[in-house]
Amino acid sequence: QVHLVESGGGLVQAGDSLRLSCTASDRTFGRYSMAWFRQGQGKERDFVAAINADGVGTRYAVSVMGRFTISRDNNNNTMYLEMNRLKPEDTTVYYCAANRDNLLTSNYASYNYWGQGTQVTVSS
Contacts for 50-58 with beta carbons within 8 Å, 24 or more apart? Predict the structure, then answer.
């Protein structure tokens, strides 16, 4: 079982940028597709972005397209989410997830492993 740890969250102002990281515990990371989701309190877990195992294929939610960029470094077992032009509505907890079958999917139920989450707060 791979363990995922997110980092990079924090408090920023609207229009600022943040980069989230998700580091995996072992090199099986390189075989999995990865994704970012976000979930507000009492709300469903929403898809943000996904990337396949070799980093060539990506997929984004409409709400973040053009502002967020997902990437990965398989040599360092790490995935990133570069978030630009942040808005107050981006405020919530962000989770990274791994899919063993290398599916590029927005369905959270398809992901096998999850991190503990990192809080992003964007003030207006």
Answer: 50/104, 50/105, 50/106, 51/79, 51/104, 52/102, 52/104, 53/102, 57/104, 58/104
With vertex at residue 49, the alpha carbon angle to CA 88 and CA 45, rounded to the nearest 5 degrees, is 65
Alpha-carbon distance 52 to 18, whole Å? Answer: 22
Give how far Cα 47 sits from Cα of 1, 59, 75, 96, 105, Å: 22, 10, 25, 10, 9
**Cα 22 off chain centre by:** 7
**Main-chain dihedrals φ then ψ at residue 66, nearest 5 degrees:** 90, -15
pLDDT band at 27, cuts 50/70/90? confident
User: In this predicted model, what pLDDT tens digit does every residue of 44-69 receive, in sequence order?
Assistant: 999 999 999 999 999 999 999 999 99
Alpha helix segments (H runs only) across 51-122: none
